[in-house]
């Protein structure tokens, strides 16, 4: 394979947005948004309150339809896209009712029921996937607890486990650390950076944490559309693009995190 072909394979567009416009009733929120996110990118989406970040994510995951423009997912127009298991989505925390009477295990398992399979029977293999996701996020011990009884940081891990249960190629996170203390935020960022660098997962994350975004993704945005700014980091250098041996296994995630911590002389903290 020639080098330029190898790059093409590595740099496939995972999300392509062309001229997306959207209004709520008569109020325009997004106008002609253009952006492409490639495999192995980590994209931080920044914008002031009301800039339309959540609206854009909801359009990307098919919950809202744009007034005009097109969305392609993994090279397919969104209307034809069926492979929703490849995408994990964690909505804003306050979008979830904390009194919802479900256990952590039930919440995580619900990530398996994609749009086409709402009433599928739970199999033994599903249970194993759930155990792996709980283990990867280090919350096995919380499996039987009501989701509403957990701390903000624990809830975030549970929602991340829910989004990860299908081993997605793309994770979309909407302000994942809102309301979480600084130390837990740092652990969370460490976890998702690790997933980006070592597990071949592509990220699109809305955040107000400009310091975190800049420290990982660089000082300047790579793209801008209206009030939205896209900060981008690719998980490896172009010349390494032929590398394909990145681990993409949920089972291995926690072990490799722990190896990294031992290597860096860090203790175990949740
Ligand atoms: N269901 C709705 N009906 C009418 N207007 C809405 C609706 N949802 C959001 N809006 C408005 O659309 C604009 C964009 O909202 P959106 O939630 O996408 O912004 P955001 O950039 O995610 O904001 P924040 O940083 O505050 O989360 C806001 O002015 C908001 O009030």
Question: Summary?
Answer:
By secondary structure, this protein is α/β, with parallel strands linked by helices.
Question: Can you count the helices?
Answer: 8
Main sheet attributes: strand count, strand direction, barrel closure = 6 strands, mixed
Mean of all residue-level pLDDT scores:
83
The secondary-structure element order is HEEEHEEEHHHEHEHEEH
How far is the N terminus from the C terminus? Answer: 44 Å
**Biggest sheet, spatial arrangement of strands:** 6-7-8-3-10-9
CATH class identity? Alpha Beta
**Which percent range describes the beta-strand content?**
15-25%
Bound molecules: adenosine-5'-triphosphate
CATH architecture level-2 label: 3-Layer(aba) Sandwich
- Please give the number of β-strands: 10
Helix content: 25-40%
Number of domains: 1
Helix-strand category:
alpha/beta
Find the CATH superfamily: P-loop containing nucleotide triphosphate hydrolases
Cα-atom Rg, whole angstroms?
Answer: 18 Å
List low-confidence stretches: 1-8
Under CATH, the topology can be stated as: Rossmann fold
Shape: globular
